[in-house]
Amino acid sequence: QVQLEESGGGLVQAEGSLRLSCTASRGTFSTYALAWFRQAPGKEREFVGVISRSGSTTDYADSVKGRFTISRDNAKRTLYLQMNSLKPEDTAVYYCAARGPGVANRPVEYRYWGQGTQVTVSS
Fold first, then answer.
1. Are 71 and 94 in contact, with CB atoms under 8 Å apart?
2. Per-residue pLDDT of the chain (123 residues; tens, 9 = 90+)
3. Which listed residue, 21, 42, 63, 82, has the most CB atoms within 10 A of its CB?
4. Among 36, 32, 27, which residue's Cα sits nearest to residue 3?
5. What is the DSSP string of the chain?
6. CA 69/CA 20 separation, integer angstroms
7. Order of strands, edge to edge, in the sheet holding 78-83?
8. CA distance linking residue 118 with residue 40, whole number of Å
9. Cβ–Cβ < 8 Å for 20, 119
10. Beta bridge partners of 97
């Protein structure tokens, strides 16, 4: 089974940028659809973006479209989330997740999760 570890979180000012990474160990990385979710204090975990196994298909939450870009490098076993024009409401713990073939946008559809990385956007 795949094990996931996020990195790249931190504190950034509004309108700034961050790039999150999620590195996988074990498992066959290219066989998994991958996604980013986030969870703010007191709120449910919400979908951010998803990418298919080959990277040819992506989808995003409306709240991040045009600002965030999800990508993957199967040779490096790494998933990325480029976040631009950050807003205070983007503050949350960001999680990467993996599932079998087929993209999905609900947390319950993902079997494997990282521990999360904190992103804090100051106004």
1. no
2. 899 999 999 999 999 999 999 999 988 899 999 999 999 999 999 999 999 999 999 999 999 999 999 999 999 999 999 999 999 999 999 999 999 989 999 999 999 999 999 999 999
3. 21
4. 27
5. --EEEEE--EEEETT--EEEEEEEESS-GGG-EEEEEEE-TTS--EEEEEE-SSS--EEE-TTTTTTEEEEEETTTTEEEEEE-S--GGG-EEEEEEEESSS----GGG--EE---EEEEEE-
6. 10
7. 3-7, 18-25, 78-83, 68-73
8. 10
9. yes
10. 35, 113
- Tokens representing 62 are 């409306």
